[in-house]
Structure formats: C-alpha cells, structure tokens
Write a structure and sequence with these properties.
The complex is a heterodimer of chains A (86) and B (627). With 86 residues, chain A is of the alpha+beta class. Chain A has helices spanning 27-35, 69-72, and strands at 7-8, 17-23, 43-49, 56-60, 63-67, 75-79. The radius of gyration of chain A is 12 Å and the shape is globular. The mean pLDDT of chain A is 86. The mean pLDDT of chain B is 90. The chains are: A alpha+beta (86), B alpha/beta (627). The A-B interface holds A 27-37, 39, 47-55, 57, 61-71 and B 67-68, 70-72, 98-99, 101-102, 130, 233-234, 236-237, 240-241, 244, 260, 269, 273-276, 278-279, 363, 366-372, 374-375, 379-380, 404, 468-476. Magnesium ion binds next to helix 1 of chain B. Residues 16, 18-24, 36-38, 40-43, 64-65, 122-123, 125-126, 151-153, 358, 478, 481, 484 of chain B line the site of guanosine-5'-triphosphate.
C-alpha cells in the first residue's frame, strides 16, 4: 500500500467509499472519533459536505456522523479501488 | 451450597449511549416525566422516578447518555459520576440494538465497573429494519446477564424488562488481549483494598483519564509506558481498541446481519442535508414553524377572545368599584390574558417544536449551520441549544452541557439567552405582528440573529477558539409518536400552567391594586430613568421591570397599565419596547440556570451585558423610527 493513495476525508467527493486508515494529531481526537466508530480499519462512506465550509457527513457502520472540516481534514481514508492492481 | 439471592435492587439507573431510548423507556415505566427527543444529548441531568414491583418500591433514575465511561462532555460525566457515587444497586443498560456492535463497547466498560446489570436491547424494530437479527439467549449466555428486547417508543417488552431486574448480575467480561489484561491487573493490584470499582479505576488510570494519587504514580507510569511501547500507540487508544475487538467478537457470535431496507428515512437526507438545497429548506422549515404558530395562534385566539371578553365585562360590572374589586378584577384579567394571549400561541409552538425534535431535524440544522457558526467562533453543535432556546432559555442553557469545551459552553449559553424564547415570541406576536405587521416581526427575528452573530464574533476576539470542531451523530429520521409529542408538550406547558399563569394573575392583581390605591404613579416615577430615555410612557415602568420574572408578563402588564391598552402606543414605542424586552436580562429562571452552569460571576456579566445591549439597541431603534 502506498501512502499517496491516502486522502483526507475532506477531499473525497460525496458517495466515495473507503477504509479509514488513521487520524493526524494527538490521541485526543482519535479517541473522540473512536467513540463513534471512526477507527482505523472502519469502512466509511462520505455522504455530503455542509455549506459554507461546513462539516463532512460520513456513514460508518450504518451510523451517520457530521465531522467539522478542520477535524475531517485530519482523517485519512484509502478510497476503495484506489489500490487496484497493486 | 446455593448462592444467596441478592437483595431486590432499590435503585436502578438507566445507562446507555446517547439517543438509545433511555428517557422513552423511563417514561414508559414511571409515566411521562422526562423529555425524550430524537437527538443525542437530550437528557443532561439525572431524573428520578418511583415504581412499585410487587411488594418492592424501586427508584428508577434516567441518566444522560454516554458513549463511553471515559472522557466526554459534562452531560456524559454526570452519568459516570452518578454510577460511581455508589448509590446504584443495579443498572439497566439500554443499548440501541440497531447499533449493537458499538453499544457493546459500553457494555464492556460497564462490565469493568462491575455493577449488577440487565441488558435491554431497545429499538428492536429498527434493528429488524436494518436486517440485524440478534440471538438473545447466546448473548445472555456470553455476558451472563438477562437480555430483554424492547421497543420503548411503543411500550413493548417493558414488563419483561422489569421482571428481569431481580436477576441483575455483574456483566461477565470476555478477556482482552493478554498485554492489556496484564496492564489492567498490574494497576488494579496497586489500588487500595477497599476500592469498589477496581477494574474501572485501573482502566481510567491506564487511559490517563485521571491523575493517579502520588503513591500510585510510579506503577501507573511504568505500566502505561510498557503498554504504549508494546502497542505503539497511546494506552487510552490501546484500551479502546481492546474493547472494540472484544465487542466485535461478541457481536459476530450473536448477530446475523442481513440486508437493510432502504426507504424514505435513508433518502430524505439526500435532500434535507444537500449542500445547496438543504439550506433553503432549513429557512423554509423555520419560517413554516413561526408562520404556522402565528396562524394557528390567531385562529385560536379569535375563538377564545369574544366569549372571555364578554365574561370579563360581566364580572367587572358585578364587582363594582373599590380596592378589593380592583384586586379581583386584576387577578381575573391576568388569568384571561394567560388564556387568550399565551396559550393559543404557546401550544402550537411547543407541539411543532416537539415534532421537529422527534423527527430528528435539530442535528441536521446543526450540520447545515456549522459553517456559518464557525464565522462567529462556534460550531454546529451549538445550534441545538440555540434552537431549543426558541422554546425556553432554561433548557437551552442546560443543553450547553453537550459541548466538549468550556469556552464553547460559556459562549453558547451567553448567546443562547438572547434567542427569543416562547415568552418573548408572545410579545413579538402580540404586539409587533398584530399592530405593526408580520414583516416587522420578521425583521426583528433576523435582526436578533444578526445581533447574536455580531456579539458572538466580538466575544470570540476575547475568547479565541481552540475547539476541535464538530463531532455530531446524526440519528435516523423517526416518525414522531403522538404520546411523546403530547407528553412533552404537556410537560413543558405544565411549567407555564403551574408557574407563569398564577404569576400573571398575581402580578396583574398587584398592579390593579397599586393603581386603585394611587401608588402606581410613584413606582413608575422611580423607573422613569428607564422609560424616559426609551421614549415610553411612564406606565411602562413597572411592566418592564416585572418582565424579569417572565418575559410575556411585560406585555400583559403593559396592556393593563395603559389606559387605552397596548394599542395606545405608537408604532415606534411598540418596537422600542419589544426590542428592549427581547434583549435585557434573561428571566429569573434563566439567570438561575446560568448561575449553575457558568458560575455567578459570569452570569453577572451576562446580566449586565444584555441589559446594556437591550438599552443600546432600543435607543437605536428609537432613533431609527423617528429619523
Ligand atoms: N423506533 C424506535 N424509536 C425509539 C425507541 N425507543 C426510543 N425511540 C425514539 O428514539 C429517540 C430517542 O429517545 P430518548 O428516549 O430521548 O433517548 P435517550 O437515550 O434518553 O437519549 P439521550 O437523553 O440523548 O441520551 C426518540 O425519538 C424516541 O421516540 C424504539 O424502541 N424504537
Ligand atoms: Mg434521555
């Protein structure tokens, strides 16, 4: 797996599916995200972007979670199909 | 030797992740006492109720939802502290069956806590909708506690749940990976012998959640270091991962996941949370809310008013003159004002607000407004307290507990008290819409938002944000149930009927008596420092000041104090009066709530600040209207 296949959540167009790989920054943010099921290995799907620099809506385990842009930028995802052929 | 039966639990706490249906379940067993709504973070305080089970009296406690016993916002901490206070005999762990895998992580934390528990798999209907089938016998065998399926919103399974209470036992915990178990044991052994929640405390220390006492510091430091090195991540994360892995194993053993049905509830967000269409729809929803409240309210008022007016006239004639008659007439007028002016608008408003809450629209509004909220230094979660503020400022202030950062809580509470609550909406509807026009009211609402935004923007300069931003679970849409809509509306109306209505009558009687005795003039002269710069008649003095008790009181009192009723005011005076009432000191109940949440010093600042702002804006309006 090569690292340039990783994308921050904010870069994914709505409807993209992928696997959460990691969260940049200290353990605090990771822990908060884990409480809602956003952990490395989780399958996620982006659903929408809020207006005016608003949050990213993601689906994880059938739950929908809104993540502020600032935080979502630190969540790295490997989109499905991105490593096809490797 | 057979194990002795544990004594019947006398106090039972409802514990579960936010929005899993604890309050609904609570209402189902003790009668409608707790507000239940479709967004995480509805309950922010412990609420107690009594039930009888055969010969036993049992106290049931509804707690705020908590994702985990680790960290979290102040509402979640209320739940944890309640459990740790040692007064709970058993826990009803209310898990959302449609999110069982995630809920099981909290189950394992409760197992670490070691309190006797029964597991309630609520939202059984939604689990089925999502194609999740759970083998309850097997789950019960693994966790060694009773497992009961319920649909709290329809009252299904509650009897079986209550009947299982005597079988509550500490939850059996499937083992974590051996390095984590070793770390837990090492810290646990170092704890004092009388520690009642050994594994839980060990886990908290290991996660770095609490500062270890000096004698434990070396052990904790060493064990944390070892686990961190072994896992290559923070021990708190290692522990969370261990729980997740164990929960996932249990889930796989007991659940079969088929295909989920996809219907309107899944599709509605394509439209309502659409980045372009969603926002206009939000405006439509809000205009619709206030528009229909006005429409329904004036229709109801039109039905009630003629009869009551005729009755009042008759009573007035029968009473004759004199101070006693004035007192009685005043009290009667206060009661009528409550009936004609307040109830017709309050009831539709509360019903519609309850509807929006139960459908699940509030968190969606938070999502849509997050971007704008960032411009005033807050984020989308603050939208929930703000929207609740249109109903009443007190729950708005309390609900700031769902925010993680203290700075966000202070700012949100200070701004949310400026949102026109139902009482202030009644002033707007009864004065501005009726005598000035709906467009003026609309301007007032928008102007109010603009002022709040500007104040927020200014305060953010003083209190810069370091908040990590929004993390908000968006619950599925749900069809509101009549029982919850009516129960919740009644609960909120009771506050009006028991407190505000008598207050209206008493204040009205008081005012009438003052006038009959010829004392009103003197009092009003004392408030001239307020009414004179605002260009209001002297009679407005007492009503404005009494508005500190309840905002709608100002309007009712004003109508009675002025010889020609409120219609005697000029349009400019009406606007000045309304703007001042809108902003100055939130009512006493709100000041009390602010004091509890923010401390009295900050509350004092809010009171002074809003009064100054109210005066300033009212003067501004006075200048504008005249100019
Ligand atoms: N479909 C379905 N909905 C339910 C059930 N139980 C509760 N609800 C709904 O779920 C929503 C949340 O219910 P609450 O009782 O407020 O949840 P809570 O656990 O008290 O939430 P917090 O106080 O935020 O922790 C409400 O809209 C309820 O009507 C259920 O068994 N099935
Ligand atoms: Mg609740």
């Amino acid at each position: 797996m090569s690292f340039d296949l990783l994308r921050p959540l904010t870069d994914l167009p709505p409807g993209t599916e992928g696997v959460l790989v990691g969260v940049h920054g200290g353990p605090g943010a990771s822990l908060r995200l884990r409480r809602l099921g956003l952990r490395p290995g989780a399958r996620v799907r982006t659903l929408a972007l809020g207006p005016w620099g608003g949050p990213v809506l993601v689906e994880v385990d059938g739950c929908r979670v809104a993540l502020g842009r600032g935080l979502a930028r630190r969540v790295l995802v490997r989109p499905n199909g991105a490593d096809a052929g490797t | 030797m057979p194990e002795p039966e544990p004594p019947f639990p006398r106090r039972v706490a409802l514990v579960g992740q936010p929005n899993s249906g604890k309050s609904t379940l609570f209402n189902g067993v003790v009668g409608y006492r707790a507000v239940a709504s479709n967004f995480p973070g509805t309950t922010v305080e412990a609420l107690r109720g009594q039930i009888r089970l055969g010969p036993h009296r049992v106290e049931v406690v509804d707690l705020p939802g908590t994702y985990s016993l680790l960290g979290g916002d102040p509402a979640e901490r209320v739940a944890r502290e309640f459990l740790l206070a040692g007064a709970v005999d058993a826990v009803v762990h209310v898990a959302d069956a449609s999110r069982l895998e995630r809920s099981l992580e909290l189950t394992l934390e409760l197992a670490e806590l070691g309190l006797p528990a029964v597991l309630c798999l609520n939202m059984a209907d939604e689990a089925e909708h999502r194609g999740i089938r759970i083998n309850r016998e097997k789950l019960s065998a693994i966790l060694r506690v009773p497992v009961v399926a319920t649909v709290a919103s329809r009252g299904q399974g509650l009897e079986e749940l209550l009947a299982s209470l005597p079988q509550a036992r500490p939850i059996h915990r499937p083992p974590y990976p051996s390095d984590v178990e070793r770390a837990l044991a090492a810290v646990g052994q170092a704890l004092p012998r009388e520690e009642p929640f050994r594994t839980h405390r060990a886990a908290q220390l290991l996660a770095g959640e609490e500062e270890p006492p000096p004698e434990l510091r070396p052990v904790v430091k060493e064990v944390r270091g070892k686990l961190g090195a072994c896992r290559g991540e923070d021990p708190a994360l290692a522990l969370a991962d261990a729980r997740h892995a164990a929960a996932a194993r249990v889930f796989e053993a007991v659940a079969m996941v088929g295909s989920a049905r996809v219907g309107w509830r899944e599709r509605a967000d394509d439209l309502l949370m659409h980045p372009v269409v969603g926002f206009p729809l939000l405006l439509l929803v809000l205009f619709g809310l206030f528009g229909s409240v006005y429409w329904a309210g004036s229709a109801l008022e039109g039905l009630l008013a003629p009869g009551l007016d005729a009755l009042s006239e008759g009573i007035s004639r029968a009473l004759g003159a004199g101070p006693l008659a004035a007192l009685l007439r005043g009290a009667w007028d206060g009661l009528v004002a409550g009936l004609v002016l307040v109830l017709p608008y309050l009831v539709p408003f509360l019903l519609l607000l309850a509807f929006l809450e139960d459908v699940g629209y509030l968190p969606r509004a938070g999502f849509l407004l997050d971007g704008l909220m960032h411009k005033v230094g807050l984020h989308g979660k603050s939208v929930i307290p703000f929207l609740l503020g249109y109903g009443c400022s007190v729950p708005a202030v309390l609900t700031t507990r769902i925010l993680d950062e203290e700075r966000d809580r202070i700012l949100t509470a200070a701004l949310a008290v400026m949102v026109p609550c139902a009482g202030r909406t009644i002033v707007i509807l009864g004065l501005v819409v009726r005598y000035v026009g709906p467009w003026a009211a609309l301007l007032l609402y928008l102007g109010n938002l603009l002022v709040i935004a500007l104040v927020g923007w200014a305060l953010t300069r003083l209190l810069p944000s370091e908040s990590p931003g929004l993390i908000l679970e968006i619950p599925p849409y749900r069809l509101p149930r009549g029982r919850n809509l009516l129960g919740k509306t009644w609960l909120r109306l009771k506050g009006f009927a028991l407190l505000a209505w008598p207050l209206l009558a008493v204040s009205s009687a008081f005012l009438a008596l003052l006038e009959a005795l010829g004392w009103a003039e003197g009092l009003n002269a004392g408030f001239r420092f307020l009414t004179w710069p605002l260009g209001l008649p002297a009679e407005a003095g007492v009503p404005l000041v009494l508005g500190v008790l309840r905002k709608e009181l100002s309007l009712v009192m004003l109508g009675e104090a002025l010889p020609g009723g409120v219609a005697a005011l000029s349009v400019g005076q009406m606007l000045v009066f309304t703007v001042f009432v809108l902003f100055y000191v939130p009512c006493l109940a709100t000041v009390g709530a602010l004091g509890r949440e923010l401390g009295w010093k900050r509350t004092g600042l809010v009171v002074l600040g809003t009064t100054a702002l109210g005066l300033l804006l009212a003067l501004l309006v006075r200048g504008l209207v005249r100019g």
